Queue: 2 jobs
Job 1
Amino acid sequence: MIFTKLILAHLLGDFILQPNSWVADKENRKLKSKYLYFHVLIHTILSFIFLWEVKLWWVAVLIGITHFIIDALKLSFQNIKTKKRWFFIDQLLHISAIAGISFYFKEFNISFLQNTEFLKIFVAALFLTTPASIVIKILLSSWTPVSEELNRLQTESLTSAGKYIGILERLLVFTFILVNHWEGVGFMVAAKSVFRFSDLAQAKQRKLTEYVLIGTLLSFGMAVLTGILIK
């Protein structure tokens, strides 16, 4: 249970008990900010409290040290453009440190990599991300509607939003099938239809509507077929 306890301490220390004013001060003053050290101290204390074993005091201290090093790297190298990237790097490193400690106590092992069912699900989920997006893009390449309306819609859209929407919807559909909740697939189709095709109806572009409809059906079809094959 060491992993769960340390993750709980991390969530409380990094998100619940860290005011925005502390974050702003750390980003402005970096290693000179007193709140950086308060923040590390809180993590150390929380880790010790949740572990609640005197003999594990060194684990709490190690968490504090690794947290300081990771946060110091983040504050030293991040800038406005890389702030989002460094947030995820920071969290990944913190979780990796906790996982490493848990691995030391033999809470984890890599035997799951020998599990055939796990590998099948992992490979299927991986296929439904970028590989499926590329396959759909290639299949639709000969039908891409070239028009001012398409260019306008792409300009008004968020960068790569369509790609990530497709990935998320395929993974959700795949998950619904694995847990035997096909009604969730129907909900996803209905939700996509309401939000997406209402915009296309206003655009009054028949070719564009057909293009998006084919892409949507291909996306859902791949997810459903993949789910059925895994089942």
Job 2
Amino acid sequence: MPLLGNLPAFRRDPLAFFAHLRDDFGDVVRWSLGSRRLTLLSHPEHIAELFGGSQEQFRPVDISWVFRQLVGDSVILSQGADWRRKRDLVQPAVRPRQVRGYAATMVDCAMDAARGWADRQRIDVEQEMNLLTQRIVVRTLFGNDLGDRARAVADAMEVAALELGAELRGIGMLLPDWARTPARRRVLAAVETIDAEVGRLIRARQAAECGTGDGADALGMLLAARDEEGNRLTARQVRDEAVTLWGAGHETTSVGLTWCWYLLSAAPEVRDRLTAELDSVLGGRPPTFDDYDRLVWTRQVVKETLRLYPPVWVVVPRITQGGATLGGEPIPDGTTLCCSPWSTHRDPRWFPDPDAFRPERWDADRKDAASEQAWFPFGGGARTCLGARFALVEMALVIATLAQRFHLDIDPGVVGTAPGLQLRPATAMRATLRDRELCLSGN
């Protein structure tokens, strides 16, 4: 359409729009959001080239005012030498050894949640997972320093996430940065709350000289990190990275867990195999980090959930420069490339019967290179989400802890999707809890 381009169709249903481009126009399709010209990549080989290309040739581009206000100049949007420096400083906070230390906190929080549940109790699944992952991220990222203020930060993050989703699907994306709509004023108020609380924690840690590198939480690791020249992140940079990690460890994981319970409830045979594995591997005890590799089916359930409902449904676009190529063909400088895990994950060329929930796709003796390359819920290449390992371990251990005790029977019916900052359910997801011990005893 004149001036708007493909915005009306994208706004109505971005997931269906991407699938339409893929199915009807091919693997490389030009489209537009107002004056912004983009190219959608759907073939795994092209996407792998995009992820694996040099940072100089495929530069991340920011197309959202709200997103920039939220994450600032964090590693997710940084470029060149600045990106490499920040990546090296942030990685220690989420490396495997550190995630091992976080695992016990993940399980403890999940056990606390289970102790608050009862047989036949009715719950809002998304709300419960939100509260649980919030507790986990507060303890692993900030220690227990937030206290009652955790709710204020979570509410502010929720406002920003909702407004980002609205901006991505509306004319807000086309507005100049200086425009101050009611929605943008709500975002600025939310960011002010986030800045105040995270800034308070940073100043308290700095005053107490807690950033010595031996802290148990990610904030301590960020404050302690030094680059090759001995320089640390500034307070503002620590804030940006902490907020980014909060979003990855809380919002993204809670959405993934919510969809996982939805899929398990609708597939009793998959759930039965899950509980059988938990009984065999754990024998009634809480899981530990060392159990992660042994919980093979649990991890496949997580992987298949992230295929069907990737919380991050569109990857940060990249703009080409310096003679970039794809598939051996030159790409003009200034081309904005994007890709969607939702679209590629549900392509029947890579995943037969793509809408079916089949964790056995990921059996070691069944998966093939095409399907593995076509799965990218955390992005890929050097810019793979730094919190990917954290999220995978968190999802598996939370599911293992709760599924030992309870089945979540979600009300029947198809739940739609609401693409925003994350791919959330469009309506409340209500479930009835069933205590497994009572079920086994016939009560």
